[in-house]
Amino acid sequence: MLQVIFNQLQKIISRGSYTEVWGNLTIKVNYYPKLLVDVRTLDNEIKKYNHLITPQVRVNTESISVDEIDDYADNQFVVNINKLNLKIIDDYEVQFFYGITNFKAWLKNISPFTQLPYSKIKIIVNGLNTTCGGPNLLITGDINDTFDTQGNFLPNDSLVAEHVVIPNGQELSFNCCKYLITSIISKKSRSKTDYCNISLIYSCATLCSTFANELHKDFIVLQGIRRIKLPLYNDKTKVDLNFLLLLKEIVEWIYQDTDHAKIDIRRKLFLDRVTLDIDYEQPLLNELLLVANNAFDQAKERYSFVMLERRDSYAKELASLLKDLKVQSDLYSSKIRSLLNNFTRDVLAGILLVGFTLFTKFTEIKILEKYNLINVIFKGLAIYFIASVVMQLITDISDLWLASKELKYWRKCISETIPKKELDEHVKNSLISRLWVTSYIYILLIILYGFIIYVTWTFPCMWNKISN
Questions:
Q1: CA–CA separation, 267 vs 264, rounded Å?
Q2: Cβ distance 77 to 26 under 8 Å?
Q3: Which DSSP state fits 248?
Q4: Neighbours of 359 (CB within 10 A)
Q5: What integer pLDDT is reported at residue 390 of this predicted model?
Q6: If both were cysteines, with which of 24, 95, 153, 241 could 252 make a disulfide (CB 3.0 to 4.6 Å apart)?
Q7: Taking 70 as the threshold, does the pLDDT of residue 465 lie above it?
Q8: How do the domains of the chain map onto residue ranges?
């Protein structure tokens, strides 16, 4: 269907001129006898291809319908095709270019780090006899060509964003999956493949952005043995598919799991070797082509030794953490036991006082009532209970809060091998249940204290009723 459209465009453009960009194709043509038929056929074919695209015809800035073309003979016509409404097929979108030159000009002027409005696209270029693409991008001359369906393990943009800094105000995107090229197929022996080099450079650049430390619009920052700032490519940069696939393997190795500490270690080992070997005056891709393979091999070897050392450090650090967690856990238990002991002590003291008051001699009770000493004694006892529980709560909560704060400080300052998520998991498993049990017991004891306080505070009134 697109080939029919291209053929029809050729009939019209051969009698005039045209300009083409990503979202628009504009044809300027003088009137000729078959113009009406050619434009009408073009209009019908485009509507069959995508009903959202309709050619617009203008004469001297005035819009006219296709059927009115013959009424404006001896005039110049402008036929405009808005290509922004892309055709959607299954899970991908389709764009087309009539001119290879225009496609190359568009390709050279885009940035691989611009945020894209599509996630998977096929670009059909008229007369193109080389297919270049991957799982989410396909540049071809045949709409029937298919995407590469082989899986890859490249990181998504959200994971990369946790390791690569993009300065505020720069709306950049890593796009390593969207620009990935995995195959180049030439259908003729002398195919023009210069556009493929541009596509390969963009794909390599997006892959390199995933292991940079900072991504800027015109350069990246690498933090290895040295901190260097350099552009990714220039007009002299040339790469090939094998080099691109090596970069893809490196990125997949760096991001082979979601452990942030391990990702940073693998990246650092690779960049340490790269920053030692490359020429800082040249773009990164020009130099990586020479050193990437050796740097990758050394990084993998060093990583094995680093992980052995980290395993020992991890075991020591975990043992120390669990020891501190046990101390913290025992602290919760000791606070519960202390509060229970104090509660028992206060209750026994109250019982002894009440017993002494109830079983004292009758005459002495009269003396107590005469001077209102019962009221003073029992309300004083209630105040003592209030002061006791408040002081215990303040002391215990302060101790627990300070111990928890010290544990967090220790984790932040000393921990180097245990990931934060794992640390939080150990703390959660060891202390959260203790915290809930302690809270429930404290609430229960506070309720019991409240009951005792109420009884002792109101006892003088009850005693007066009993004695009278």
A1: 5
A2: no
A3: H
A4: 8
A5: 78
A6: 153
A7: no
A8: 2-84, 89-282, 311-467
